[in-house]
């Protein structure tokens, strides 16, 4: 549905040029929920604005459904955008806000009324059709903004961090709601966020960006379990980084333990292993990696156990909190650590 080909967007002149996008090529499939994920300043919103037509690329092309739209103005693109600020009209009712775009397009009054009713039902706001938007909660206003953007039936809906202003509980509810809306409408959603949880829970695929470049594209599971570099591994969830060197039979950690079955042609690499993939065993467990518990952080559903290996390397282990609330270990305990070699990822950059 969307293709960016060798897209560059530069700001400034001479020695002060900043490349917000640096030769980005990406393909977004029809009918998928695609998320652009990355920290502030990585270029994700710039790419969204190029798709919308609010910015023009310095170089490269933007195609939509096979048609080059690089030079088309925003009003001639079959695309709608939901912004972080919902930009609703406070003097209009919910129904009037939803139908406003259709009226501006000169659609027949009967069509506007029919589509508005359909959108109200889709976002479950029928009882509030005649309320002013200033009388709604943040989550309800978000739904109105979504309904208004979906009413013209765009081929693509662009969402620029639309949940960031909501509280945690409402944000989680809206994550489920957004995914439902995308599945029911079948419209291609392109979602921009810096929140890893949002990206993992809603997306069919994720594009991770950093410093104007696309680092990795894949399913949430691929991105989480098989990151291609250190940036992706560290940005998506929590992980442990352990320096390692190749030896006969595997990779040796700084503490001397050997992780069998992993190989590399590099003289040194970094192993990344997620906290939930590590098991805590007794200190006298033969073959386990010796460690000392340095601190425990309780998160309700689980506890993060911070460990120190003999070489000073830090490791975090996530264990499910039992009913008693105790993690089974105490600060200062000597323990052993185990993980399956297949759970570790070798990073060579």
From TrEMBL:
Swiss-Prot/TrEMBL catalytic activity: ATP + H2O + polyamine-[polyamine-binding protein]Side 1 = ADP + phosphate + polyamineSide 2 + [polyamine-binding protein]Side 1
Pfam families, A to Z: ABC_tran, TOBE_2
GO cellular component: ATP-binding cassette (ABC) transporter complex
Superkingdom per UniProt: Bacteria
PROSITE patterns found in the cross-reference section: ABC_TRANSPORTER_1, ABC_TRANSPORTER_2
EC annotation from Swiss-Prot or TrEMBL: 7.6.2.11
Keywords recorded for this protein, A-Z: ATP-binding, Cell membrane, Membrane, Nucleotide-binding, Translocase, Transport
Keyword Hydrolase belongs to the record: no
GO molecular-function term, one example from the UniProt record: ABC-type putrescine transporter activity
Domain ABC transporter residues, every copy: 2-236
Subunit text: The complex is composed of two ATP-binding proteins (PotA), two transmembrane proteins (PotB and PotC) and a solute-binding protein (PotD).
Role this protein plays: Part of the ABC transporter complex PotABCD involved in spermidine/putrescine import. Responsible for energy coupling to the transport system.
Entry similarity comment: Belongs to the ABC transporter superfamily. Spermidine/putrescine importer (TC 3.A.1.11.1) family.
Protein name as annotated: Spermidine/putrescine import ATP-binding protein PotA
Protein source organism: Paragemmobacter straminiformis
